[in-house]
Design goal:
The protein has a domain of about 30 residues. About 60% of the residues lie in helices and about 0% in strands.
């Protein structure tokens, strides 16, 4: 009985092997990199604000 189960599983696997297809997509893959651009803008603004505070301490009392 165990042998029949193994044979049945093998035949099922062979019959499903023809159903799998691998092919390239019709449209090109698009990678969106807007996150990096936004991070650079935040870093630049932070540096500008830090320079403004250091150069004008009277505007920002502690």
């Amino acid at each position: 009985m165990k042998t029949y189960s193994i044979i049945a599983l093998g035949l099922t696997g062979l019959s499903l092997a023809g159903c799998i297809q691998v092919r390239a997509p019709d449209k090109p893959i698009e990678i969106n990199l807007n996150v990096k651009v936004q991070q650079e803008v935040v870093v630049r603004l932070q540096r500008d604000a830090q320079d403004l505070i250091q150069n004008n301490p009277e505007l920002f009392p502690q």
